Amino acid sequence: MICVPTLSHRMKRLVTIMMCVSAICSSTSCDGTNQNATTMDTFQSSMKSTAPRFVPSELLVKFKDGISQERIASILKDNRIDVIAEIQRGRLYHVKILDDRSVESAINQLSSYQEVEYAEPNYRYQSQK
Fold first, then answer.
1. What gap in Å lies between CA 29 and CA 21, rounded to an integer?
2. Which pLDDT score, from 0 to 100, does residue 83 have?
3. What pLDDT shows up at residue 22?
4. What is the mean pLDDT of each run of 10 residues along the chain (129 residues)?
5. What are phi and psi of 82, to 5 degrees?
6. N or C terminus of the chain: which is more exposed, having fewer CB within 10 Å?
7. Dist CA 105 CA 111 (whole Å)
8. Residue 1 lies in a domain
9. Is the dihedral of CA 85, 77, 60, 71 positive or negative?
10. What pLDDT score does 75 carry?
11. In a domain, 82, yes or no
């Protein structure tokens, strides 16, 4: 009998792999004074710095232990937030803001709930060449 991983199992594996790659990339340091940099390198570098450091309208929200699924669903619905992926079963969620609020505003609203351990932007990580 062949065991076929479920979609949620595959999603957890993918997220775990992505987190490991992010940790490796962010722990690598590069010398910022590259004297061989071309004008194009400098231009591309300045273009990257203008891009937002996080995905617009997306957050990671972690709930405290023991919070019911019904309460989590209620908090997210009340704040017009939809679940993209459940990363840690019943605790950590990748979510999307459904209205035009800023990421910062949504974080402030969610952080006011005692059930929320933390809410943070969905940061973008890029490896440096």
1. 14
2. 95
3. 54
4. 54 57 46 45 51 86 93 96 88 94 95 96 82
5. -115, 140
6. N
7. 10
8. no
9. negative
10. 96
11. yes
Total domains in the chain come to 1
Reduced 3-state DSSP string for 5-54: CCHHHHHHHHHHHHHHHHHHHHHCCCCCCCCCCCHHHHHHHHHHHHCCCE
Looking up tokens 């962010």 gives 26
| C-alpha to C-alpha distance for 6 and 26, rounded to whole angstroms | 30
pTM of whole model > 0.85?
no
Q: What is the domain extent for residue 85?
A: 54-123
CA distance linking residue 48 with residue 69, whole number of Å: 39
Token pair for residue 52?
């937002």
The answer to the question of residue 119 being in a domain is yes
Tokens of 67: 């919070």
Question: Which residue bears the tokens 């910062």?
Answer: 104
pLDDT at residue 125, rounded to an integer: 81
The whole-angstrom separation of Cα 45 and Cα 127 is: 12
